[in-house]
Design brief:
544 residues; alpha+beta; FAD/NAD(P)-binding domain; six-stranded antiparallel beta sheet; 20 strands
């Protein structure tokens, strides 16, 4: 951080009431909110284009009690909604009888604020033309429906309707927000990567030090600075330092390098959720070559399993991606390692021959498509040998992971056991196909199967496999915020003039991923709160 006393007023390259860092959902929401509160706003984006990770995502928002769901006759009372929020945010502490549901007061208040303000934020952004979203309450003609990921839990009384998607024909969410910001005279500057904050003599945050190409420029904030700069999902060093297990890739923007961690640390911020992320599974071999490999949002196919290095299933293959991704992080106190670092997705010819061309298909190629990360063999024993050979070829790029000596025999036993479950229609090991979300997201179905997510693998080959590992959409740990979206210092008091929202701060969601669009719903809500409150701050001294 730089002290304002070392600078002169005429050295400012930019000046506004509120400065915003990042142009994803949180940043645009903050900028529009601050403008609606009467502030002049400049938004800085390090990339060559706006959008951040929001622009790379599905671009939908999960918001409880939104007006679109209410207009369609779906009730979402606060007490029930908070039970669902808290149940997944901190399951290890959750207690339905406790006044704050087992959570510390500050964590409970963050969830309550999300419920109280989220719907109003969507309405406010809609009213000024910055959003046009609609809730999906019932089954639609889309190829996939979007109930809550925990729609089957008893605490969830409104499993449909919290998911908001752009109204058909209205454009992607980030396009809507960009138009909304332009209509509110928000200045957007690209390729301006924030390097540090600037403090005045009262230790208030009053500006930013920014790298614009080869230049360093200075921006002054008369009222407040808001960080919405994303997590550290693309920073391998920080991932290794903070995340348990191994992360093979991310779908975050390349600038998700965790810049705000360094900046906030210098300011004495308190941190939380540093081992947290929005999890998924990815295909490992392309991840070794590219920072954004194919993701397994929902593993494709019914006659398909995922097994560990011993040839045994360890996960419900149709569970939400956030839950499946974390299976790879399991630490075994017996073997003193992470036995699920790699899993192996195995499918038969029926799945391979499916003509469905859908975004959730990878790693299964389309018929007649050749992908070098797919392993093929005429039978399960030969497939086991081929997988082991591939691991040997990959060498130390994947660590010391090899198949067990009894992998082939265990795989035969696993397939037989799975086939019996499929014929019965009940997965007695992992309850595959037992939830609303799994059934809604299941794409490949056959006639007359008792469980549409499961079908017996063929008795004869060929069989196919791909190596699967953990990935992140982005991380979600960082400086702590309060319900005003203020960044908190070591003493848990606000750092004056500094706000945060989105993946660069410790998420109010904790361990939860409540439904599709959770990340963006929180980002829009707390970004809007940050913008409103930053705009209302008293003007600060910009000179010594």
């Amino acid at each position: 951080m730089t002290k304002m006393s070392t600078m002169e007023e005429n050295l400012y390259d930019y000046e506004a009431d509120v400065l915003v860092v990042g142009s994803g959902a949180a940043g645009f929401s903050a900028a529009i909110s601050a403008s609606l509160s009467g502030a002049s706003v400049i938004l800085f984006e390090g990339n060559q284009h706006v959008g951040g990770t929001t622009g790379l995502s599905g671009g939908t928002a999960w918001v409880p009690n939104n007006s679109s769901m209410r207009s369609q006759g779906v009730d979402d009372p606060k007490d029930h909604a908070l039970e669902y929020l808290a149940r997944l945010a901190a399951p290890q502490y959750f207690s339905s009888e406790h006044p704050t549901l087992g959570l510390p007061q500050n964590e409970f208040d963050l969830l309550a604020t999300f419920y109280d303000e989220g719907a109003d934020v969507i309405d406010a952004l809609t009213e000024v033309g910055a959003l046009d979203l609609v809730a999906e309450v019932s089954d639609t003609d889309h190829y996939i429906q979007f109930p809550d990921y925990g729609g089957h839990l008893p605490e969830n009384k409104a499993p449909r309707g919290r998911h908001l998607a752009p109204r058909p024909g209205s454009g992607f969410m980030i396009q809507q927000l960009k138009r909304g910001a332009a209509s509110k005279d928000v200045t957007v500057l690209l390729e301006h990567r924030v390097h540090d904050t600037i403090l005045n003599e009262a230790d208030e945050v009053v500006g930013l030090e920014i790298r614009a190409g080869h230049r360093t420029v200075i921006a002054a904030a008369r009222r407040g600075v808001i960080f919405a700069s994303g997590g550290f999902g693309q920073n391998g060093e920080l991932l290794r330092r903070h995340i348990p297990g191994r992360v093979f890739g991310s779908c975050a923007t390349p600038h998700a390098q965790g810049d705000f961690l360094r900046i906030a640390n210098r300011l004495g911020a308190s941190f939380g959720q540093m081992s947290g992320a929005w999890w998924k599974q990815i295909v490992v071999e392309p991840a070794l070559r590219s920072p954004s490999p194919p993701s397994l949002w929902m593993p494709f196919g019914d006659s398909m399993v995922q097994v560990d290095r011993t040839g045994r299933r360890v996960v419900n293959e149709k569970a939400p991606y956030h839950d499946r991704g974390q299976v790879h992080l399991h630490y075994s106190a017996t073997s003193r390692d992470f036995p699920n670092t790699l899993l192996f997705m195995i499918w038969d010819q029926v799945v391979a021959d499916s003509p469905l061309d859908v975004p959730f298909r990878p790693p299964v190629p389309l018929p007649n498509e050749q992908l070098d990360y797919v392993i093929e063999a005429p039978d399960l024993e030969a497939l086991s040998e081929a997988i082991d050979q591939r691991l040997t070829q990959l060498g130390d790029t994947i660590g010391d992971v090899r198949l067990s000596d009894d992998f082939a025999q265990n795989l035969h036993d696993t397939v037989n056991r799975f086939n019996n479950f499929a014929a019965e229609g009940v997965d007695h090991d992992f309850q595959r196909g037992s939830t609303m979300m799994e059934l809604a997201w299941n794409l490949m179905e056959r006639d007359n199967t008792p469980n549409p997510t499961m079908a017996p693998l063929s008795d004869n080959g060929p069989y196919y496999a791909s190596i699967i590992g953990a990935g992140v959409l982005d991380t979600n740990g960082g400086p702590l915020i309060n319900t005003e979206a203020q960044i908190l210092g070591f003493d848990l008091q606000p750092i004056v003039g500094l706000y945060g929202a989105g993946n660069c701060v410790a998420t109010p969601a904790g361990a939860a991923y409540w439904g599709p669009g959770t990340t963006i719903g929180l980002a829009l809500t707390y970004g809007f709160i940050a913008g409103r409150n930053a705009a209302r701050e008293p003007e600060k001294s910009l000179t010594p």
